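Course assignment 3, question 2. Fill in each field.
Student: A.L.
Task: Predict the tertiary structure for the chain below.
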Amino acid sequence: MNETMTWLQAIVLGGVQGLTEFLPISSSGHMRIVSQIWFGEDAGASFTAVTQLGTELAVLLYFAKDIWRIILAWFAGLRNADARGLDYRVGWYVILATIPIGVLGFVFKDEIRTMGRNLWLVAIMLILFSFVFVAAERYGTRSRPLEKITRRDAIVMGLAQCLALIPGVSRSGATASAGLFLGLEREAAFRFSFLIAIPAVLASGLFSLKDVFEPAGEGMAATGPQIAVATFVAFVLGYVSIAWLLKFVSHHSMVWFAGYRVILGSVVIGLLAAGVITS
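Answer field:
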């Protein structure tokens, strides 16, 4: 029998989801850590996936004009070859970048909900992937704006997005790092990262909706109103975090986030080793 989630847990975890979804610090890792340390239970992969619908709604709202323009351009380009400009290509690039995580997410959905929730793995990935951020900042030329994005960029960033299936990695961190290695400007890498996350996260959240009320494996059971409130909190805080992050990365390096990840991962390993929390 799964533990029943309280209102406090739902609100806190919705806030954690909103604040961390777009920062390169791993929202799924933070959800796992906070739920274990504060509540002594795992909120569950299904609850995490569903509350991500709130943060993706924030993306849809924040980038509404860009998304609508890309959709219109994509359909126009299908009908008329002369209308195939940047937005048409970006539409196809988003589709290309979504395919890898769609396939792997479906194939390994059971492992993601069980073995992938282990706190030792989360903590280790928080630390290890920090060095990827540092390397991306060190070796990326940051010379190409979003207007110069290519099909190769989309494929590589789409493959990098698959790493987000491992809690502790960070979807935005993995894809933005790939973009930096490819020579994209930091803000361009993050913007495209947000766009390619939309189909995958929406599909994951909708697919998990049926499981969140009665989790089949690990995870707490939540009521409909609790899920709705948690998702709304995630939406509000997610919108704020998008605006803040895009402004921050236009002038600051990802190394700041790498330092935070190393500290958090080390603390979690220390707590696990001391037996204060269980994995």
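Instructor remarks: The first helix runs from residue 7 to 20. The mean pLDDT is 86.
Grade: pending
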